[in-house]
Every structure is written in structure tokens, then in C-alpha cells.
Sequence to fold (307 residues):
Amino acid sequence: MPLRMWTYDLAREQVPTLDHLRRFCDLTLESGYDAIGLYLEHRFAYPSVPWVHGKGCLTPEMVQALQSEYKTLQIIPFINLLGHFEGFLYAEAGVPNAESKFRGMQACPSKPNFVELANQILQDTLDVFSSQIVHIGGDETFQLGSCPECKRRVAEYEQKIGVDGKAKLYGEHFGAGTIPVAIEGNSPQPEPRYPVGFAHPKVLAGSPTYPLDVIAGLSPDRRSLRIAVVNATFKAQSFEINLGGLQTRAGGKLWRLSGKNLEAANKVGQPPGVSIREEKAPALSRGLTVPPISTSIYEFPLRQAVN
Ligand SMILES: [Zn+2]
Fold:
């Protein structure tokens, strides 16, 4: 099912009226889109979390009214359940959920009260929104592992060789999905040239595989290895892969997303600027080569499932 969506950010203290939102819904449909995302953070009156309701925030009644008026439009909630939690953390009742007291914008995944709060937020969202899709944001989590309990868990996970403790903590918080695999590279990221805004420390977002961004993970059944490679350069790039103890057993699948330039996008009524192709990937030997301006996702079956 194609999804054509744009997102409206309500989280910067926007005070939308119902009429204001109706205008956006009309515009969405007139433009040939079938979905609108509402980026919520703390600006939604979650029924179970009354202490965070700010003045003029979006209410369940408003969402229900829009859903009954715009039956062909999918209204997709965007919530944040770890980073970008500052709207909750700086409300008095939310302070104990923070990873570091009065610093940053991340909640602590080791605090049972926060985990319960995250479940309440998700349940309220599912109760109110009829959308088949709920977007759960997991970004801005650079504080992960800074409180004493998270630090202890990270150290405990890392007793096992090859385990990235923070990635495991993160994976456990967001559920039993893909299992992250630590990536080591021999090409560090250059220092960021432009500082980014408030509360963003100087962090290197990419993997040590510059100029490529590489992430790898095991499928939930631990029988395949998935590797995603983003090449945002104008040259084909090759890199070597050392799988450590893992052994793939045959060729795999490859999904490749590419466009003519970095700004390529799909626009309504025009031929697609970005395409996704599924191909067969030859068996993994020593390296992979990825074309310019592309995202490639490989999946290779493993000789033995990993414990
Ligand atoms: Zn913590």
C-alpha cells in the first residue's frame, strides 16, 4: 500500500484549533496525500498522564472529530518513548524518569516507572488513534548508559565479547526486534563541522566506516544477518567485511534504494525520483560494493543460528 504522508510538528508548543487542523487535513487530501502525521511528544492530552497536559494541546476529542470527518485520511501519531522526552521530564511529576537529573532530554529505560509510563502513552495512543501505523521515535538517545543502573547493565552485557551494551539496552527497551550487531570499522568519522542546536552534545552519529554509514543486525529468529549501508557520496564505494564468528551460507537478498541526486524524492503526478529494487545478492565473500547515492539493505542466511 503506498503511503503519501507529511508530518505536522505539534511538539514545539503549538496550539492548534480544530479548524486549523481541518485546514491541514483538507490540504493533505487536495494534494493527493492519504496520510498526515502528527508529531506529538508531550503536546497530546494522554488520558492516563494528566500531569503533562499543557495549555492548548491536542485532545483525544479533536482527534476523534477529525477521524470521523476524514474517513479516507490516515492520521498517524508520532510518539517518543526514550529520547525527546523533555516535555515530560521537565514537568514536576516527570522529573524522576530522567536518565540524568535536569540534564538532556532522555528518560531512563531502567526505571520501572518510566517503562510503565511509556506503555501508558502507547496504550492511550492506540485507544484514540484508529491509524494502522504508530510511529515510535527512538532518536536522541546519546545519554543512554549514564545513570548508575544503566551503566551497570551496559557493563554487564559487555562481559560477553562482541556485545555492544548500549545497543542491547536500547534493543531491550524497544522490544524484541532485530538484534543489533556491533560494527567496527577502520575509518573514523571526521569531526562535525557545524555545531547543532540546544542540548545536542558534539556526537558522531555515523559508524566508524566513513564515508559509509553501516549498521548490522540479526533477524529476530537469529538465522539471518542484515546489513544496511548508506552511501551519500557521488562515488561507488567498496568495503571489506569481517564477520568475526558468523558464517553466511548462501547468496542473499538485496533491496536497493537510489535516486538521481541527494534531493531526489517522489512527487505526486511525476515519474518516481527514488526507486526500490529487490535483487539477488551473491554469496558474501570478502567485500561489498555499493553504488553512488544509495541505500542498500542486504540479508544473508547464516550457516548456524546465533545464540
Ligand atoms: Zn538509566
Notes: Residues 99, 108, 110, 147, 149-150 surround zinc ion (CB under 6 Å). The chain has two domains: 1-175, 178-307. The chain is about 20% helix and 25% strand. Helices lie at 18-30, 60-69, 86-89, 112-128, 148-157, 165-174.
